[in-house]
# Entry
Amino acid sequence: MPPAGVPGWEEAAVSWLLDQCPADYRAYAAWRRHPAALAWVATRHLEAQLEAMRGAWRDVRPELGPLLPPGSLADVLDSLAREGLRLRAAHRAAGLLLEALRLRAPLRS
# Structure
């Protein structure tokens, strides 16, 4: 991702943000026209994914554990942990992009 202010950084930000959202979000032209709106909705989407991952971590042993072959729960827990870390990093990055876009936005009176 190029630094904020470098030519083309907003286009790169929009592309990255869309990659963090469901594929259906690409159908909405408003997200491309209004990168701050996309960053805002992407942070909310990532927050929801994080909450879902926390719930999965909490519930995996009693709900899924009995259905898995012996010894495989550790693999599932590892995958959940890795995805949680990825989501936290993506949420932080989306928040930083939102802040950069807010700083760039013209003041309204």
Summary: The chain has one domain: 9-104. Residues 9-104 form one domain.
